[in-house]
Amino acid sequence: MGRLDDKVAIITGGASGIGYRIVQSFKQEGATVIAADVNEEALEKLNEDNVHGLKLDVSSDEGWEKLVKHVDKKFGKIDILVNNAGITSEKPIDQVTYNDWEPLSKINSFGTMLGLKYVGSYMKKQQKGSIVNLSSVTAQVGMGLNSYSASKGAVRAISKAAASEFGHAGVRVNAVFPGIIRTPMSEGLESSSETLAQIEAMTPLQRIGEPEEVANAILFLASDEASFITGAELAIDGGYSAR
Ligand SMILES: NC(=O)c1ccc[n+]([C@@H]2O[C@H](COP(=O)([O-])OP(=O)(O)OC[C@H]3O[C@@H](n4cnc5c(N)ncnc54)[C@H](O)[C@@H]3O)[C@@H](O)[C@H]2O)c1
């Protein structure tokens, strides 16, 4: 028996990195998974019996509206949403322009808000559901990813707000705070090798994390095993934020 048998789950950003691992883990635990991403080419490779790749730009109201209608028509319910899609940037504060700030805010923060708006409202009508939002250790401690940190700080705040607003309807909302995880996103950072070595040295567990380690924690929060947990903040950072 799987830990997510009979569950219908939407994972945004499911085509790469952490999102891809979540899709695999949820599938293995018996869920029907909708992997929603802008990367159509990568999505096509995911399609199989209980994994359905669907195109979604998380910053589009129309996109979310269409997705929820489609999933409702096809599966009749949505049990789980993981707001995982995201982008990054590493400009120092004295070089930040509005053009750098805007896409981070639009995709990371507003994209999460739209997931809460469309899927959260749907779950409220259902009177049940579980949502997990991907914030970041950079929302808790300074790490030089300034506009990105701000966008993830907003995710932290709206997760609490949504947990308060949706709880009475049986909808749980939790947030996770990964440290540096080995994915195309972290490997793409310009300052990569030098910064990663420093971060590893400053991390109590002395290493960066793997996508599977984030997926494991999200699986727990998304599942009924976490039935009395809402509004929680879970660090998945090898102890980096505990120093
Ligand atoms: N990798 C890390 O070190 C790390 C640390 C903390 C938090 N996070 C967060 O975890 C999440 C996943 O990161 P990752 O490292 O797997 O990144 P990744 O770049 O490997 O994957 C991100 C996915 O999001 C998709 N995406 C980007 N913009 C989108 C949009 N507008 N609509 C829909 N999909 C979109 C991309 O196509 C990609 O498939 C992100 O929210 C990220 O900020 C990552």
Model description:
This protein is α/β, with parallel strands linked by helices. Helix content is 45%, strand content 16%. A seven-stranded parallel sheet has the order 3-2-1-4-5-6-7, sandwiched between helices. Helix 5 (146-166) links the parallel strand 5 (129-134) and strand 6 (171-178). It is globular and about 50 Å long. Nicotinamide-adenine-dinucleotide is lined by residues 12-13, 15-19, 37-39, 56-59, 84-87, 107, 111, 134, 136, 178, 180-181, 183-186.
Please sum up the structure shown.
The protein has 8 helices and 7 strands, in the order βαβαβαβαβαβαααβ. It is α/β, with parallel strands linked by helices. The longest helix is centred in the middle third of the chain and has 29 residues, at 98-126.
Which molecules other than protein and nucleic acid are bound?
nicotinamide-adenine-dinucleotide
Percent helix: 40-55%
Number of helices: 8
Oligomer: single chain
Extended strand count: 7
Q: For the residues shown, what is the average pLDDT?
A: 96
| Class by alpha and beta content | alpha/beta
Contiguous uncertain segments of 5+ residues: none
Q: What's the Cα radius of gyration?
A: 17 Å
Strand order of the largest sheet: 3-2-1-4-5-6-7
N→C terminal distance:
39 Å
Name the overall outline: globular
Largest sheet: 7 strands, parallel
